Structures are given as C-alpha cells and as structure tokens.
C-alpha cells in the first residue's frame, strides 16, 4: 500500500495565514495547484498580493511588540521545540503533501524533507539557549558588552525544490532569535507551508508571529515582500536572477539580505578514489530529487585513468533507477516540478546534442509515463567547457561528465563559473584533498561524500551563489542585531 493510501491524505486547498487566522485573498482570487505526477489540477491556492502582505506585516509588527517580544528565552525555546514535535507527529501527512506538490518520492519527503524540517526546529531550540555575547573590559576605563536583539519582521521567500525543509531552515532560526515572520512559499508548492501554519497554531505560538501569504513573485506577493517598508530583513532561496530583482526592490529601504542562490557544482573524481563508493554517491548527487537540488554535482570531472571505468559503472547504475509514481516505494526518481521546467530541461538536452554532446543514457520521457513531467536521468559526455550544459544551471536530472589530466586543470575548470555554491572531491590522498579543497571556489566542499550536513556549520555560496552564511551562529548573525553598550568606570 502506498503512503498516500496508508495515510489517506488528500490534497488541501491553501489559504493565507494572517494574524493567526486562515483567510482567502481580499479579492477572492485563487490559482490552481497542479500535481506534477499527473499534470492534473488538485486544488486551489489563494493568490495574495500587496494588500495581504500589508496585513501580514502589520500583524507581525504587533506580535513583535507584544507577547512574542515579552516571552522568556526558555518559553520561546520550548515553543519552537514543540513545533518540531508536532511536525513529527504529522510526518506522514506532511510527507504525502510534499510529494503531491513536488512529485518527489514519498520516502524521500519523509526521510529527508520532513525529518529535517522537524530537526531545524529542534536544533535551533537547543542552540538559542546556549549562546552568549561578547564582553570586554578596557583597563579601568570602561566595560563593553553586547546585547543581541531580533532584527524585527523578516520576509522569507522560498523555492519549490525542498519546500518545507528550506522554509523551516529560515523560520526556525528567525523565531529563535525573536523575530516575527511573513513567509511566501513558491507558487508550485504551497501545501506543506499551509499545514505548517496549523502546527504553529497548535504549538501555541501567539497570533501574528508567523504569517503566510501565497502568491507569485514579480508584481505579486514576492515583490510586495521585497519592497515593503516595514520588513527589516529578507531571507531568500531561489534563482540568482530573482535575487537581483529582490535586491533592487529591497534597496529602497536598505533591508538586510541573506541569499542562497543557484549552483553549477563540480564533482571531481581522482583515479585513486574507491570507484564503487564514488558511483553510489554520484548517483545521488546527480539524480536525487530529480536533480532538483541546488547542491547537486551537475558537472562531473573524472581523472583520465578512471574515466572509462567510472562511466561504465555510472551509466549501468543510472539505468537501474526506477522512475515513476512518487507514492510507489520502489521509485527512485519521481516527476519534475511542472510543465515549464520539464520543457526547459528537455531543451537543454537538445542544446547538448546540437553542441556535439553524446547522450549516454536518458534524454527523454520514460516509456509508459505519458502523463506528468517525468524525464529519464541523463548523462552527457563529449562537451567542452564552453558548452551551455556545462556552464548553465539546468536544475534537473542531467549531468555532464568530462575527463581531466591534472589537478591544476581540473581546479581551473571547476572554478570557471560565476557560481560558487558547493563542490565534491574524491581522493584517498590526504594532502591532495586539503590542497584542492582550499583552491576550489565554493561555500561548501565535501571530500569523499556529498550532502552531509552539520547544522552548526556555515552554509551558503560564494560569487553569484549567495550572500552571507546561515547555520548555527551564522544564522543568529543574520537574524539578530548586536548593540554594544559601553559603560565608563
Ligand atoms: P525562483 O527564484 O524562480 O523562485 C523562488 C521564489 O522567489 C518563489 O517563491 C518565487 O515566487 C519568488 N520570486 C520570483 N520572482 C520574484 C520577484 N521578482 N520578487 C520576489 N520574489 C520572487 O527559484 P525556483 O525556481 O523556485 O528555485 C530554483 C532555484 O533555487 C535554483 O536556481 C536553485 O539552485 C536555487 N536554490 C538554491 C538553494 C541554496 O541553498 N543555494 C537551495 C534550493 C534552491
């Protein structure tokens, strides 16, 4: 029995959540929510804009100056922990809605997206009570100490690929630092954010602390958040070009910004690495979540002596991946997010062919899956470093593989991009691992692994892959303001 049947979860219609109440848009506007696994309409979503964002910001400001601002650190921590507990209590429901919205396999939603979402609250609930601030005694002249305060009302703008995981990655530390929030999920994936508001209410979070406005980006709820004069900071995850638009809108009121943007991440394999281990992880770093993860290693570089052997094993394992119904427990690769994205990624496969690339496997819709947006995991070789598929973020189940001869050459190729989010490198040579890692231009570098996260560590991108870091103390640096108090002795 599939998880969907087991939990009997039905898609939900999505309303805004403003000042503790679910509500439709003031003008009653809605848009359709499409199931990517079938292409069919499965519900409606309230379409918010400036008016709804205004109401949400007013509620958030009142809550900041009211009960939330007055709550003790311990009580706030307990409440944040409770949100995590309630997510776990409703884990199957969350997982089913996440898979209905995104098309990803439900085992993945359950074991990664939802489990990590709950952990985001548990982690920051613990972290917040262990922090101190700086103090300096300046001879017998003065004592300086810093106090930490919330930034204020924070706007959260989120993408569709890991909807609840990334939303809670921002919301949990924002609340832990004492802020109030106005959140906008991606228009493609509104359901788990909506369910989260029920959990937030049930956890006893005061009205107005967390608000949710659904809608689109440009000329819609996203733009209204970006330019709202009473929002103090924006944390955004999404495409690099959207980051530019938000920055322009936010510039007028000089908001604090934290950005997690696109990537075109290298996966560098030296010939001395254990190839079976490399292939097992490379399958994940290439195709998990249909390749729709900002951290996916979409440019694979293999040292020449291992190139043929690697390709043989990689192609064979890729062909074994079961593609299909997100609710079938055997499915490894589900449906892509929607028609537009499916067509965009398919176009890249055509571009690769036009630029002289060879498709070793994949490249088309799987046979028998006529409805929904399914694409076979695709491996492309024979492209040079200037090919568009090597340079541009595709954000689907598509990787390029290229051979290399020297360390210097592969470092130069890996860094030849305006992105700088993550990189993986595989070698059993300890010195080389340290040497190469220090030269790769990326915010996160994995050696002999991928996607292994410790939430205390800095997470973010260099170059056009982001601004700032989140995680542990770094999250608090963004979500709080420090004031230094100097007392003359
Ligand atoms: P997107 O930029 O199209 O949309 C993200 C969000 O921004 C959505 O909620 C959208 O409605 C909103 N938006 C769009 N235009 C806007 C505007 N002009 N003003 C305000 N809001 C606007 O991104 P996406 O397609 O949802 O997500 C995929 C992208 O996200 C990829 O580039 C991927 O690499 C990136 N991503 C990065 C990370 C990271 O941690 N660095 C994580 C996940 C995804």
Automatic annotation (TrEMBL):
Entry keyword annotation includes Iron-sulfur: no
PANTHER family: 2-AMINOMUCONIC SEMIALDEHYDE DEHYDROGENASE (PTHR43720:SF2)
Protein name, UniProt field: Aldehyde dehydrogenase
Gene3D superfamilies: Aldehyde Dehydrogenase, Chain A, domain 1, Aldehyde Dehydrogenase, Chain A, domain 2
Family: Belongs to the aldehyde dehydrogenase family.
Keywords from the named record: NAD, Oxidoreductase
Species assigned in the record: Ferviditalea candida
Record keyword NAD present: yes
Domain Aldehyde dehydrogenase: 28-484
